[in-house]
Amino acid sequence: MEKRIDATDMKIIRLLQQNGRMSNTDIAKKAGVSETTVRYRLQRLTREDYIQVVAMIKPVKLGFGIEGSIRIKADIKHIEKVSDALKTIDSLYFVARTMGRYEFDSEYYVKSTAVLKQLIDTINGIDGVLETDVSTVLDYVKERYDFGDIGMDE
Question: Fewer CB atoms < 10 Å away: N or C end of the chain?
Answer without folding.
Answer: N
